[in-house]
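Bug #77: duplicate submission created two jobs. Keeping one. Sequence:
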Amino acid sequence: MVPSVSMEGQSNHTSGFMFVFLGISDDRNLQLILFPIFLGTYLVTLISNLTLIILIRMDSQLHTPMYFFLSCLASIDICFTTPISPRMLSDFFKEEKTISFIACATQCFVAAWMGQAEYCLLAAMAYDRYVAIGNPLQYSTIMSPGLCQKMVAGALGTGLLCGLVETISALNLYYCGPNLIQHFFCNIPEIVVLACSSPFNSQMILLLVASFVGFGSLLIILLSYGYIAASILKLSSIKGSLKAFNTCASHLVVVTIFYGTALAVYGNPTSSHSDKQNKILSVFYILIIPMLNPLIYSLRNKDIKAALRRGIKKSRH
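Kept job's structure:
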């Protein structure tokens, strides 16, 4: 039974609380193998996303709504993985992987903010593809710079609000005893179950936010692609249909990977996965997807390849 403590005492006690990560593995040999792999993955993530942002910003031919959204996605991916990856890499060399309550709260907030913002941004990008294929003649008028900026601001604002609600609801609980996190980062669902006070309200808030943002964004994406499919079917030429589909193929792949992994991580109760499975899925969600996104958009994209060649030529002169 938890002893009676004043709210002020609870706040002071909780703010000085320390969590301990159990990490990805306690096998030293496996850690020596994973460290250079994860370090390389994180560096590729930073380099590829930063390169994409710089290319889109510097090349005037890429100043279109699609590439504006893509540069914002690259920025979100960097901000999403950076609060977690460097800390995880440094923990490979620590015997006791402790993290303060404040640092844990910060990690939770930034990851939740960027994660929710990415859901919303992927929905905005789906709408952009629908307008490009369904209304090509009015595309530049509908997808004006002002609207694009408002959509990105809306995605970031929604993510910020949801991240604050999730983090405050989870970390406003009273933590006094169990402090072992079966993970390598502060994942809100893993933290609330450690609270000495009842986590029910926090868990309901997490569920409501996930349903509102995650499934709301998914609904917009599905509707957009439904209209895209209908528009493509109306095209008389096969070449035109393939060209139209090709403009949204990369986005469709990114959405499938992102939502598929998110549903695998958060869509089922924690008890349905082993700790090992949860960690593997989270590595993919946090490390691999932010690395894959710029590669998926770049490898098959002639505009980005051409912009990269122009950038290389300019740097040589």
